[in-house]
Amino acid sequence: MTASHSIPEKPQVVIIGRPNVGKSTLFNRLVGKKLALVDDQPGVTRDRRMGDAEIAGLHFTVVDTAGWEDEDAQTLPGRMRAQTEASLEGADAALFVIDARAGLTPLDEEIARFLRENDVPVVAVANKAEGSAGESGVLEGYALGFGDPVALSAEHGEGIADLFGALWPVIGEQADAAEASAEQLAENEDEDAPLGPLKLAIVGRPNAGKSTLINRLLGEDRLLTGPEAGITRDSIAIDWEWRNPRTDETREIRLIDTAGMRKKRNVVEKLEKLSVADARRAVDFAEVVVLLLDATKGLEHQDLKIASMALDEGRALIVAINKWDVAGQTESGAAGGEDASGLFNGIRAALQEGLSQVRGVPLFAVSAKTGKGLDAMLGAAFDIRESWSKRVPTGALNRWFDDALEANPPPAPGGRRIKLRYITQVGTRPPRFVVFGTRLDDLPKSYERYLINGIRAKLGFDAVPVRVTLKSPKNPYNANKGGGGNYSGER
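^ thats the sequence. predicted structure below, dont judge the formating
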């Protein structure tokens, strides 16, 4: 697992177990978001899925796997098991999950034998241990031979601190080394290195015209379109070269079409759930996300939820109002300029009010049918990616930080002043900063917002999502022993 530049990678922890013990629920809990599809029926997960996990400052890569089944190798469950077995190659630890309410089964014992034949350290996890129903199953977990089983409830978040205590001795040193190396690499990375093709995802509600817009850009009917909502099911990525008409410069773009995202309560069929999950993964992959609105329907609450999702994932966001060729038309069919202007300004005001994470998200009126506004939208996408990828020089960052503290010193709750010692930028895409100090758990959220707004306004990040983490210098392991310690809050 050693990278070519000899920088240690984050430790990789594989979740393994028979079907329906809660592996994907635990995966979602560790990554802090619902990346993996979860359902009561077994066998929902088929492929390995990786995510960035964190427990109280312990950072690692977690791998969700298909449920282990005792089937012929040529069958689908058998091939899924082969994928699970392969996931242990190069892993640094395995979380062997059992169902505490069901107790040990012969299949659990078979998995345990397989794990004992490998060199990967194993932490036994008794999931669904909430309440008295899981007590006997937790006790049975000792028979697996992997030490004290960690009793937890992935669904309710109980016992995660105990999981930290079990993982820290196994991967803590490697995790610390990887984080320190990543911060050093971020400080030394070449800011002039080319960014590569722009990864641009088009998202929105069903029938907003996403596929039609991409077809217009490509100049061909590459994607299936029609009047029915929900034609697109899979996220489709297409590599394309855009020629900027103003500069005659050619730029590479990877266009990503996605399934329409309806209100959650309206999504009941499994296939549509999978499609929406795939669209969310496309957002994770993208650098810039274009939220496409339907001018004939205006801005709806679901649009704001989609926009917030993209910003929460740290993606740069652009909003485009499609079908502008019919917006504000009079009864005779002529364009109604005042009506269209009112629609545009109304949507802009609603975005300002509804998106608290950022201000001034770029807004464009476009038409997938005529091509209006598309070049301006793409030019803005490249510009906002530049901001999203920018690194602030250390001197400029320190000067801003000193001025911000002098203009508005941190409060002193209980007469003891909170000390903010220094700030460093630890990453880009999105811009990420760490503020070091003491008594950070007492710092009001309003002061964190003050710092984030200052970074955005004074350092040139404008509408880009910014992450600020607060860190004290103590060992994060102590935080789970009742002794205070590390506080890390990301906003």
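The chain is about 35% helix and 20% strand.
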